[in-house]
Specification:
Helices cover 36% and strands 21% of the residues. The protein has helices spanning 2-11, 37-48, 66-72, 86-96, 119-127, 155-166, 183-191, and strands at residues 15-18, 25-31, 53-58, 75-78, 100-104, 131-137, 142-149. Helix 1 crosses helix 2 (37-48) and helix 4 packs across helix 5. The N and C termini lie far apart (52 Å). InterPro entries: Plipid/glycerol_acylTrfase.
């Protein structure tokens, strides 16, 4: 699968670049997320780099018979009906596993979002794992992981570093690319 994925990426003009991870466990964010093609290019990149990333889904998606397929594709069921904290659930998953990468798209949508969701940040912080800066730059036709950031707890400072990394990455539909801000930053600007 790795050879086929690398061949297909090259065939379509994509270059795969993956910085080696500093840890066997990490939260992998994927951005910018502006089209369904992000999934295709990202999946080929994951296969090409031999990264078996997992993703989170509501537990209802994992009922038989579809549940078997969802798990085979890397899905991890989470219970969103309880008042349980998703960050705590994910931190527990990281604690149990010896090696795991959990993929999250922080924009939360393919449409233009006013800010990034920060759950990925707090999951990595609570679990004590780095954030892998995954990207698909359609302008350069480059896909991969450009680096890793260990969250410090100072979300504004850490988001400034994340913003600096993604500032020149362009999605397939740039008009759907939202700013890389946390909600508090957007609310502060709106209240001024």
């Amino acid at each position: 699968m790795q050879k086929l994925a690398r061949f297909l990426l090259r065939l379509f003009g994509w270059e795969l670049k993956v910085a080696p991870p500093p840890s066997r466990k990490y939260v992998l964010i994927g951005a910018p997320h502006t089209s369904n093609w992000d999934f295709v290019v990202g999946l080929l990149a994951l296969w090409g780099a031999r990264i078996r990333a997992r993703w989170l889904g509501k537990k209802e998606l994992f009922k038989p018979p579809l549940g078997y397929l969802m798990r085979a594709l890397g899905g991890i069921p989470v219970d969103r009906s309880k008042r349980s904290n998703l960050v705590d659930q994910v931190a527990e998953i990281f604690r149990r596993e010896e090696e795991i990468a959990i993929l999250i798209t922080p924009e939360g949508t393919r449409g233009k979002a006013p800010y990034w969701r920060t759950g990925f940040y707090y999951m990595a912080l609570k679990a004590g794992v780095p954030i892998a800066l995954g990207y698909a730059d359609f302008r350069r036709k480059e896909v991969g992981i450009g680096g890793y950031l260990y969250p410090t707890g100072d979300i504004r400072r850490d988001f400034a570093a994340i913003r600096a990394f993604y500032q020149d990455k362009v999605g397939l539909r740039p008009e759907k690319q939202g700013p890389i801000h946390i909600r508090e930053e957007v609310e502060e600007v709106a209240s001024d």
